[in-house]
């Protein structure tokens, strides 16, 4: 069965308002002319409002934990757990294991807590955002969080206790997968070697656009930094333009 389009339905309504036979179909230009005369207006759909995710104002205000997977030889699957800081995007802890186990999450969280103690020993409170995966809510995970007092960690479940998803750490997982596809580690030791390289490169080497050129660890350790790259960018742009001019032919320069 063929259903009429919205335009066809609107045309019929306009024809009825004019007392015309509904079997007649006016030309498109005629339809718009009469629609304007009758004051008929198409109801415009409102644009989708983009939801704004969690935006921390200080390091350790919101932490994220997530598990991703990588296939190894002999049909083995490694579970990779990352714990990240929302404010700085830094990876604070990670761990790998064969299979999806809560102990893997515990070890990554232990690393993250150690990182917090190292760089922010006065941290009092923190929120941990996790998805509903069972590995994030096992007894051993709850026992670790209960035993941790500095900082006191409150766990929030994405899309239940808090409106938004765990997307900040999922974005890091996408970058990680690019590394893994490039190096293609096929054993657990090889995977661990790639992960060590990835965390070092991601945290301390590559600048992050949303951090205005800082690396995640620079933003984590020194949240007071407010870099301004406008002047350096202008200087580099001027150098590039000058080099482009030098590369032009003499005839073009004289025009």
Summarize the helices and strands and which ones pair or pack:
Blueprint (H helix, E strand, L loop, with lengths): L5 H12 L10 H11 L23 E10 L5 E9 L5 E8 L3 H18 L5 E6 L8 H9 L4 E6 L9 H17 L4 H17 L11 H6 L8 H18 L2 H4 L2
Parallel strand pairs: 1-4, 4-5
Antiparallel strand pairs: 1-2, 2-3
Helix pairs in contact: 5-6
Word description of this protein:
With 255 residues, the protein is an alpha/beta fold. The protein folds into 2 domains: 6-38, no CATH class; 62-221, Ribonuclease H-like superfamily/Ribonuclease H (Nucleotidyltransferase, domain 5). Helix content is 44%, strand content 15%. It is built from 9 helices and 5 strands. It has helices at 6-17, 28-38, 102-119, 139-147, 167-183, 188-204, 216-221, 230-247, 250-253, and strands at 62-71, 77-85, 91-98, 125-130, 152-157. Strands 3-2-1-4-5 form a 5-stranded mixed sheet. The N and C termini lie far apart (67 Å). The model has no long low-confidence stretch (mean pLDDT 83).
